[in-house]
Amino acid sequence: MVNILQFNKESWDKLVDAKDRWTIPVSREEIESAKAGKWQVLLTPCKPVPRDWFPRMEGSDVLCLASGGGQQAPIFAAAGANVTSFDNSPKQLKQDQFVAKRDSLKIRTIEGDMADLSVFADESFDFIFNPVSNCFIPELKPVWNETFRVLRRGGTMIVGFVNPVEFCFDSELAEKGIYHIKYCLPYSDLTSITKEERIRLYGPDEPVEFSHTLEEQISGQLEAGFYLIGFFEDFRDDEIIKDYMPSFMATRSLKP
What we know:
There is one protein chain. Strands 3-2-1-4-5-7-6 form a seven-stranded mixed β-sheet, with helices on both faces. The protein has eight helices and seven strands; from the N terminus they run H-H-E-H-E-H-E-E-H-E-H-H-H-E-E. The protein is globular. The protein has a single domain, classed as 3-Layer(aba) Sandwich (Rossmann fold), CATH 3.40.50. With 256 residues, the protein is an alpha/beta fold.
């Protein structure tokens, strides 16, 4: 039996060592621009989040959920927010700490499971930022219930996630630009393929991934009590599939 939380923690720590794209801290120049009010961040891989999706940052209590890596949390802190970065990977949190120390920013970092926010009191935050990351956990309902609990009334949450259709395809053929449906949804690295196949396809250290239905992603938020008030799609920038369909989606939700 795989301890998913521990396995993915170690996987993301190794991705930091490998200098994966999502572990590279922002530059001093980006921080200075954010202090001057000129900034943008990614929730999905390519399309910057619309600025009207964000609250006024000055003085806002912001939770960067599963968002370590020295990228978004430092930008929000430089823009004047009171930022908490909550992530399962200690080394991803160290990237936030690195930027905070380098640029004299205040960022609180806490290691933990995104499905368990019990360390936070009810209604602790004005805004929650959750980039593409819920593909690394098996269940979403606890995330939506917990984020609803810790968000203040009138607060918003923005979430990026993978288009579930992506998980249907034969990954080896997809690398050749051939999109052949092979797997049923919901997909799981632990049950849809064997351990040997996973290692052969992705290597021994890649994080374990799970698809989630759109019903889980969207209706799950609604059932937790959120109102859906924004949506966009995004495309990959490095695979042929970008010519056919969006690979990512993003929602903006309100706690009434």
